[in-house]
UniProtKB/TrEMBL annotation:
Pfam family, one: PALP
Organism of derivation: Maribrevibacterium harenarium
Entry's Gene Ontology BP terms: cysteine biosynthetic process from serine
Keywords per UniProt: Amino-acid biosynthesis, Cysteine biosynthesis, Pyridoxal phosphate, Transferase
SUPFAM superfamilies documented for this protein: Tryptophan synthase beta subunit-like PLP-dependent enzymes (SSF53686)
Family in the record: Belongs to the cysteine synthase/cystathionine beta-synthase family.
Pathway the protein contributes to: Amino-acid biosynthesis; L-cysteine biosynthesis; L-cysteine from L-serine: step 2/2
Ligand binding (pyridoxal 5'-phosphate): 74, 177-181, 258
Catalysed reaction equations from the record: O-acetyl-L-serine + hydrogen sulfide = L-cysteine + acetate
The protein's name: Cysteine synthase
Enzyme class label: transferase
The keyword Transferase is annotated on this UniProt entry: yes
Length: 297
């Protein structure tokens, strides 16, 4: 009997591709992990599926339950897909300034959306998720404190990068939102080679980059362990957006703003080091940003 794959089997094992034209230092290799190839279109497919699977395995939830999560976009889309695969109702809370494509994608998967104002932001979204849980509406997965978020990357993203580079990776660059990606990948890569440099990105003061946060201390994700990051770089919104556009027009890589931030940092690193293999996360696709006009500048 033929064993056909299911949609969840397509999560992970994404390609690692080489920058061809905009790398400023030919002695370095800059590689991009193309997470937009995941079925719901972002790196968040990995932790979304893992958080639900592990909660179910522990008996914390069962199919038919209602789940709740605060999200700036990609995690919400991924959770909406995972909930549809596994038979859960998904309540998603997000700031109302997120792109129309993100909201539409969540709704298309059957999720129920709850919006807070741009001014209230993710802090209010996170508080509302906990309030809804207290009201008995559902169970909060809490990507910001859930160890199943980074463990998804320790189990999959990190090993893939190590295998795809044949152990030659010297630098790993990732935007920091929930910090799940950088925490999980750092744990795995440092186990293989403690000298691998882990570079995290946060927005400059005054910059607004979807998916990258500069958290107030009270809201800093509890999964974040500062010692797992060797260098934190501030990224300007203008630089992230310009590199995002350059990737599309000069490399044929269509991605979002936080991915532009990751590659902007990788390009800065490439000007400072030699003979390095720099891996950056392309966390999603550019089509979910078209309505914002960011590609028109």
């Amino acid at each position: 009997m033929i064993e056909y794959p299911t949609i969840e089997s397509l999560v992970g094992n994404t390609p690692l591709i080489r920058l061809q034209r905009i790398n400023p230092n030919p002695s370095n290799t800059i590689l991009l992990k193309m997470e937009g190839q995941n079925p719901a279109g972002s790196v968040k497919d990995r932790p979304a599926l893992n958080m639900i699977k592990q909660a179910e395995a522990r008996g914390d939830i069962k199919p038919g339950d209602s789940l709740i999560e605060a999200t700036s976009g990609n995690t919400g889309i991924a959770l909406a897909m995972a909930a549809a695969i596994m038979g859960y109702t998904m309540h998603l809370i997000m700031p109302d300034n997120m792109s129309d494509e993100r909201k539409a994608a969540m709704s298309a998967y059957g999720a129920k959306l709850h919006l807070v104002s741009k001014e209230e932001g993710m802090e209010r979204a996170r508080d509302l998720a906990l309030e809804m849980q207290q009201q008995g509406i559902g169970i909060v997965l809490n990507q910001f404190a859930n160890p199943d978020n980074p463990s998804a990357h320790t189990l999959s993203t990190g090993p893939e990068i190590w295998q795809q580079t044949q152990g030659t990776v010297t630098h790993f660059v990732s935007s920091m939102g929930t910090t799940g990606t950088i925490m999980g990948v750092s744990k795995y890569l440092k186990q293989q080679n403690p000298d691998v440099q882990i570079v995290g990105l946060q927005p400059q003061e005054g910059s607004s980059i979807p998916g990258i946060r500069r958290w107030p201390e009270a809201y800093l994700p509890t999964i974040f362990e500062r010692e797992r990051v060797d260098l934190i770089m501030d990224i300007a919104q203008t630089d992230a957006e310009q590199v995002m556009r350059d990737l599309a027009t000069q490399e044929g890589i269509f991605c979002g703003v936080s991915s532009g931030g990751s590659v902007s940092a990788a390009l800065q690193l490439s000007r400072q080091v030699n003979n390095a293999t720099i891996v950056a996360i392309i966390c999603d696709r550019g089509d979910r940003y078209l309505s914002t006009g960011v590609f028109n500048a």
